[in-house]
Structure formats: C-alpha cells, structure tokens
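Protein 1 of 2
SEQ + STRUCT:
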Amino acid sequence: MTTTEPAVGQLLREWRERRRLSQLELSSQAAISTRHLSFVETGRSRPTPEMLMKITEHLDVPLRERNQILLAGGYAPRYPQHGLDEPELANVRAALRAVLTGHEPHPAVLINRWWELLEANDAITFLMTDVDPALLEPPVNVLRLSLHPDGLAPRIANLGQWRAHLLGQVRRRAVQTGDAKLAALHEELVAYPGGTGPALAPTDVVLPLRLRHEGGELSFFSIAATVETAADVTVDELVIESFFPADAGTAERLRELVGG
C-alpha cells in the first residue's frame, strides 16, 4: 500500500480551521486576498514560499510543521533541526543547564513537545523514590512517570486534581498541533486510574502538586519557560518546567534534602 501526503492547500486549511479562523479573518491578518487564499487551499493556485511563511506565521504553526508545509508546497525546509548534543546548540544547552542548576534546591526538568525528559537537575532525584525502574528507561516521559500506577501516582495526594490538569494540557496541545503522537499519549494517560479531584477553592491561586514523601508532604507549583526566539526545530520544542515550593515547610525540607 502507498500513502499520499496531504497537499499544501489541505494542510493550510487544516491549520486555519484548527485556529478557528475564517478565510476572511486569515486573509485580513496576513494581508492577502481572500480569493487568493481560497485558490491556494483548493489547489487552484500554487503559493510562493514567502506566502507560506507569512501564512504559517499568522497561524502560529510550530517550526516542525512549517517545514512540513514548505515540503508539501515543493520547497526546501527553512528551519534547521539539530540534536541537543550538536555543536550548533552548545550555547543554548549551556544556558539551559545553567537554569536547571541555578534552580536548585528546587526540582526542574527540560522536556520536549511530547513531555520526554531531556535533562533534569539533581533535586529531581529526591522525588523518584519507589518508582518502577522501567519507567526511568529512556526516553522517560514525565507524564507517564507521573500518572502511571507504578510511577509517582500512588504518592500524589491530590492525584485526581493533578491528573485532570495534566490530561487537559496534553489534550489542548494535541488539538493545537494536530500531533498524532500527542493524541496517542493522551489516550494512554486517560486509561490510567486516578479519577478526578475536587475543584480549587476560591482562595487558591495555583494548583499544587502535593507529593507524599518520607517525613511529610511536599507541595509544589510549576512555571514553564520556552525559548521565545527559537529558529531551530529542536529549540522551538524545548520547555523548562521549574517547580517551586508552595509552602514554607516544603522549602525547608528541600534545603535539607538537597543540602544534605
């Protein structure tokens, strides 16, 4: 059997619909005629690479998919993709490592678009007790590690709340990107037990991750950071998720664990 790759017009239409924009809205934003955009989507007109770059920028298409659209249009990809260990990304990797290390004694991880673990600081090891070693075999998926019954799930005191939060993140990103791998990950995670938890109280300002740990409970909230000026596919998909103590007891306990 052979498969036919989607035409460039079809891909553009799918991304436009994914962003819930009409042809009129997109053509107005991208400063092209609605008639021309319609012809491009139906295959009656071949877009230039410059037009594809303009449209995909207005549609906020990730760099990986922009390259795919350019290829579908018969053009060479515009965005390189280097491995994180390659010399071209040495400065970026050094900066990311500095962020991870500088965040200690609090945990922080570097992940890609599929939540696969690329690097972590030393503080994260203190949270991995009683985890099935099979879940720590590369590539480690931090969501699977969190929600799997043999992972952190039995130790998460508010598993229902945290599970709903993570599932919502994966579902939204799968819809936003049309990524089949993310959709499959969402289906896998939904099948894990855990239920749903109570809604946040009106006085809550963040959703905490409440993790049972020897000697007490640790409570965290997280902040995610990306490289906003990325022009490389790999860099565009990198995310640092930093965990901060949600209470004074957690902050003190982390200083004892990491400091010791």
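Protein 2 of 2
SEQ + STRUCT:
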Amino acid sequence: MSGIVRVSAAVVVDEDGRALVVRKRGARVFQQPGGKPDPGETPLETVVREVAEETGIHASPADFVPLGRFSEVAANEPDHQVVADAFLLRVEGVDATSTNEIEELRWLREEDVEHTPLAPLSRNHLIRFAWA
C-alpha cells in the first residue's frame, strides 16, 4: 500500500429498512455516502456535510450514531487503504437525490447486496450495520 485515504461514511437506512448506496462519477462500484474531510473538520462534521452534498439529505449531527473506525483496500485509489469513521443514520420520509459528483444512487434491501457491485469497505464492513 502506498497511502492512506481518510474518510467519513454513513450507513443511511430508511423506514423500510433499505440502505442507501451511491456510485460516484467515474466509479464502477457503489459505497456508502461520505468522503474526505475538509481542513479542520471532525469526522462527524465531515459525514454531515458529505451526506448533504451527495444525497441532499440534511440531518442533524445528533442523528448520526458512531459505528467505529474501519480499514480496507480503497476502491477508487489504486494501492491505497481507506480508513473510515463510520456512522449510522436512520431517516424517514426523505427523498435522496444524486448531485454532480454522484452518478447513481440506490436503496438496497439485504437480499440485493450479493448482486450489487460494492466497494470492499461497504461489502466487508459497513453494509451489515443496516440490518444489525
């Protein structure tokens, strides 16, 4: 591994028990909404901002439940490892909308996971929290 990419990511779950995943522009795989911190941002501030920017879901910082820190091979940066501070966000009655950096978003049920191309961090660590 030649580098580490630090991110914050959210496992967003709706009232029907579906998990939201996004596919960033130019990427082949889906992942949880999230991204890299701006200078001076905490992991929580990062995830609140990134979820709003990528999905249009504006949630209060108090709505995010910390899940821990996870490491995995990065999906979009060759020879890098991603280290993610992950959070759970339960939402009701929201319309998620893709933004400029998001090519596609999907709401997944647990049975959809095995047939959906997911980033290693999502598949191996985060998506399971949607149904835990």
